[in-house]
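Thread title: Can someone regenerate the structure for this chain?

I was given the following input by a collaborator and told the matching C-alpha cells would be attached. They weren't. Posting the sequence so someone can regenerate them.
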Amino acid sequence: MILTTKDLNIAYGDNLVVKDLNIDIPEHKTTIIIGANGSGKSTMLKTISRIIPYQSGKIILNGNDISNFDTKELAKKLSILPQSQEIADGLTVGELVSYGRFPYQSSLGRLSEHDYQVINWALKVTGTDVFKYRLIDSLSGGQRQRVWIAMALAQETETIFLDEPTTYLDLAHQLEVLKLLDNLNKKQARTIVMVLHDLNQAARFADYIIAMKSGKVIKAGKPEAVISAEVLKEIFNIEAIIGQDPLTGKPMCISYNIAEGADKNEKEKYSDYTNAVSNF
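Best answer:
Regenerated them for you:
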C-alpha cells in the first residue's frame, strides 16, 4: 500500500464529517471513490493530500507520517487536481504546466534544463504540446483538463489525486480524460486516486473502489465487489439493476429506482425488468 489512514477524524468546526476512517490506497493502481453528495469523498481527498487539516488519527505515505513532510517535499510525492481551478488571465499552456516544477525550483525560481525537459514531456504525453503557446482561456473544457493533468505530471509525483476530473465535460471529453489517466496508470505506473460520480465510469476504469456514506467506508474492493445492488442501496438508497458491460466485462448499473417511496406500479416495473435481466 502506498497510502494508509488510521482512525482518521475530520471536522468542519464542531461538525465531524469523517469519523475513524481506515483506508488503504494500493500502489500503481487506479482507486476511485464513490458516494452520495456530502458523504465525505472530497473532504477525504483534500485531507490525505494535506490541503485541509484533520483532527486526529494518522495518514501514512510510503511508511512515513504525512505530517512529517515539509510542503515542497510532499509536493514531490503527490499532486492534486481540485474540482475547480482558477488561473490568471493571459496565461499560456506552457506557462501553466511549468508551475508543476515549483517544488524543484531554487530560491531564484529559475527553470533548469531538466525542468524544461519534464515540462515538454508532460505536454507531449497528455497531447497538449500542440497548445503550448495558446492561452488557457482559448481551450475547450476537455483540452483545459488535459493541461491541468499535464501540470500535475510535471510535478513528477508517483501519486496523482483528482477531485471529479470529468465534471462539466461532455461524454466524449469525459472518456478522453479517463482514458488518459488510465494510460498514465498502465504505462507510467502512476498511482491514480480520484472521486467520480458516474458509477459505470468508476466500474470501468477502477482497479479498486472505495464506497463512502456519511464519512465512513461502507465497502472497498474490486469493482465486482463494490458495484452491487446491495452496496448501491446502502450508499445511495437506490434499487439498482446490475449487469455486465459488454465492452469490458465489468459490472454496470443498467437502471435504478429510489429504494423508498416508489409507487406500486414503479416497483412492479422494476421487478419485471430485474427478472428479465436475470433470465438474459
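The chain has ten helices and 13 strands.
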